[in-house]
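# nightly structure sweep
# worker-07 picked up a monomer target from the shared queue
# config: single-sequence mode, recycle default, output format = structure tokens
# input follows
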Amino acid sequence: MSKPAPSLHDKLNQLRERFIEQLPPRLATTKEQWQHSRLSAEEQTRLAPELHRFFHSLKGTGRSLGFERLAMLAEQAEEALTTAPPRADIDAYISQLLLKLEAEQQHLRSHHGQQQVLAAVNSFELSSQAPPLRNKRQRLIYLCDDEPDQVDQLIHHLRCFGHEVVHFIDTEAFFNAVLTCRPDAVIMDVHFPLGQTAGTETITSLNKLTGEPLPTIVLSAYGDFHSRLSAVRAGCDGYFTKPVKPLDLMLAVDEITAPTAEEPLKVLIVDDEPEAAAYHALLLEEAGMIAQQVHHPADVLHALDRFSPDLLLVDVYMPVCSGEELATIIRQQPEHLGLPIIYLSSETDSQKQISAMAAGVEAFLTKPVQPEELVSAVRLRVERLRLLRSLMTRDSMTGLYNHSTTTDLITKTLSQAHREENQHAMAMIDIDHFKQVNDTHGHLAGDQVIITLARLLKSRLRLSDIIGRYGGEEFVVLLKGVSGEQAARLIESLREDFALVDFHAGDVRFRCTFSAGVSSFPEQPSTESLRLSSDQALYRAKELGRNQVSTELADEF
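# output follows
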């Protein structure tokens, strides 16, 4: 039997133990530096920054890890070193504090494992578990309806968009199935032989039993007030009357089954104190984030390119380069201009905090920071950044990447693929006779076609694939890690399903098709050559009659 994963409490205790074990040589070095600094004015000037940094760091890290007496003694030493004019008894005072620090660390070592974790951390551990991330777009849908009308068509459309659908004709079988395997969403009729509101009553019973509301859309032949009220009281998320347009129902399903969270937030922690960095990393990881630590400012630029963080958490006082200087270096690079930076320091002087923020950082958090405060500050600023990025990089109609972002992402992917010798495939997709759709059915109907194809691509392709709206009715897809032949087969299956989707313009029902061209990397070694080859294959597919997939080798699917 495998051991349970260590808790935040366990990880923190390990960190505290490591901190105490490493403290004696650091104190010995500081004691020696202090003695040297009293020999001459030159030595005092040389060693003063290191002495101040040690006491400042010990104060912040000690307080964060719950070693309050250590932190208090370090704070007294820091104040004595920065007070002007200096105390008359500065020599004896600092020496005495160093002796007290040695005594305290010996006490802590002798009482190994008896220290209590901070209450704030204990409470945080109980409430910090992030909701699990969905790593796939396919959803399990339960459809409960005892009337066959439209059911087959609805199931077909749901499956076209990659959903798994299970159909039930009675509420009892549906009830038992939910208890066995909970679906991502439910489409439920209201009226059954058991009663006029049997469907919504079943949903109410399940919600009470499980304590977790089922995402539910009601589909009913009745639109009366009583039926709608029963759905509202059951906590249902939507209500449609038959006959329903499949695409309208699909949109509602998309909304209630949307992923509960995006990719984990990525935070780069820059702190020359490994224990302090590790402590804050533990808190962020406990909240479901990914944290990477850097202990030397000179390593930050490389880490930015390699890790691509959503936010930087930076200590203010570091050797070689201060947090303020580091923030300025980062801000001078256009690609990192909008990257959120939060200072984290034991500095309590408000004027110094304001001065440090002159480089354009978002916030200044004072050690020891409460776990909830740290997590909240990071999430708030990263979510704002992601929203702004989305507005700049996404097509407003479809939510896919826009033209320039798609090109940039493909170029970056191919650059990495050259180094790792990976294979990829590109598909250019164009809706057939789209001008005719607009002219015949109107631009709103045309928009519906574009949005539907975008949703089909998002639902059937992987999260790792790059999907972009290239312009108008044209789309581009980069399928990672697959050959051109594999990509062509996949696009062909999408083409077949898209051709069977029913669109509506008023009372008129119509269908659309698309053509596609596929090319391969590394056969085509650049973004431009891939695009040109895919475009040529697309042109060939249109010349041959449209509604087909062609490859760079002139194979039709």
